[in-house]
Amino acid sequence: xxxxxxxxxxxxxxxxxxxxxxxxxxxxxxxxxxxxxxxxxxxxxxxxxxxxxxxxxxxxxxxxxxxxxxxxxxxxxxxxxxxxxxxxxxxxxxxxxxxxxxxxxxxxxxxxxxxxxxxxxxxxxxxxxxxxxxxxxxxxxxxxxxxxxxxxxxxxxxxxxxxxxxxxxxxxxxxxxxxxxxxxxxxxxxxxxxxxxxxxxxxxxxxxxxxxxxxxxxxxxxxx
Length: 224
Prior knowledge:
Elements: E1 6-10, H1 14-26, E2 30-35, H2 38-48, E3 52-56, H3 64-72, E4 80-85, H4 91-99, E5 103-106, H5 111-122, H6 130-140, H7 147-154, H8 159-169, H9 174-181, H10 185-199, H11 204-213
Keywords: DNA-binding, Phosphoprotein, Transcription, Transcription regulation
Domain Response regulatory: 6-122
Domain HTH luxR-type: 150-215
């Protein structure tokens, strides 16, 4: 993609929005709209059609979680949502990831991390290293799902794809997966793409969540 990402900032703190707008602008990223609460964010998305939304969790009125749900249940071509939070283990962040957000950032993020995150999710990739997402999942998802639930939810996957999903949920990168499974990295990428397609998932973040929610992976992870 040659055009710079188009971003919407949703945060009730003026200083936060101003700081992020200046950081993004300095890196050639266009802020097309700002919102002070979730309802404004939903309307602004419809009006400006940004590529990426930087969404605060805790805002007055309609919060970031509800706004994320509304935005991501829209038509095809919906933007990617990055959740902004002050707390790295905020239960609302997990809920937002489950609703389809592509990851989260802490508000003390560095300028380099902020711009890299926007560009990463704009290309359709997940923002988070799966290991980071796993910290949220381990704390807030249910555990001990029965085998019937596992087979029902993951039935479309082949044994190899189940193996890849389990290792992905432990935080392994494609290169690490390739080394562990003695496969070419391109083959691993193909397996990951098929997992996402079969389960109807947006990205690796949601794949990690599914691995925990179905019981494929527990708190301590599968045997290594």
